[in-house]
Amino acid sequence: MNRITRAAITVPVVGLTALLASAGPAAAAEGSAQADLTPVPVNPVNASGRGEVEISGTTLSFSLAAQGLLAGAPHAAHIHFGESARNECPTASDNNAAPLPGESDPHEHFTTTEGAPAYGEIVVSLTTTGDTSPSSGLAVDRFPVGDHFEYSRGDVQVSEEVAQAILSGKAVVVIHGVDYDGDGTYSAGDRGVSDLDPSLPGEATDPALCGVLNASQVSTQPVGAVAAGDGSSSADGGSALPYVLGGLGLTAAGGAAFAARRSSRATA
After folding, report:
1. Residue-wise over 64-74: b if at least 16 C-beta within 10 A, else e?
2. Alpha-carbon distance 212 to 87, whole Å?
3. Beta bridge partners of 60
4. Which string of b and e fits 1-34 if b means at least 16 CB within 10 Å?
5. What is the pTM (predicted TM-score) of this model?
6. Is residue 153 within 8 Å of 128, Cβ to Cβ?
7. For residues 155 and 104, what is the distance between their CA atoms, to the nearest angstrom?
8. CA 258, CA 172: separation in Å to the nearest integer?
9. pLDDT digits over 169-206, tens only?
């Protein structure tokens, strides 16, 4: 006759924990994370922002807000992560790349290429509509526009690796767009063309704001959070920005679920 043995019932707590940790599939990612966005070193940016993300399995919902950026211009925004990256915001010491085509005074420009060892590659494009994959990283017609903005989206699909990276504090939010020469538009100027796409000025793609996503410790989903799976998005000129920067609804979410199975055979 099959039954659970007495030995299995009387396993010490520590031993049981070890057994559960080694059994069954990995737990699904569940929780939320927030990032306070501050200026990237070197670049002349006087702005701030906040990103908030909620994860349910491999579905991501996010809210993003910023103020003080270049008015009337699009600002590409992404979640970055890399297996070999430091998974943090860059420091001034990362500003060490050789001059790019058309670039003079390279030490006065911090480029996306220079920031990559710190924050890694694009894993989610925080577009206002449409595709959110890395292939939309330069879809400038689908990113927020203006010196201040706030918007939210739900039902963004990511890989298990990306979901776990976000909830492990290894993902970084970066908003791009720097007006080095202060002429009120993205132009080649002393910066030259973009290191990501030579058809764009470097000012359009260089990083402006950066922040590491830190996981929330609260285990319940707050009222007003962006609902995963609703596919919704919204953008606004910034009338609600003080509220957003003080903390959007995505400030907490639910813990982690864990299950394991173990069976024993014994003869009665």
Report:
1. bbbbebbeebb
2. 8
3. 55, 156
4. eeeeeeeeeeeeeeeeeeeeeeeeeeebbbbbbb
5. 0.72
6. yes
7. 43
8. 26
9. 999 999 999 999 999 999 998 889 999 999 999 999 99
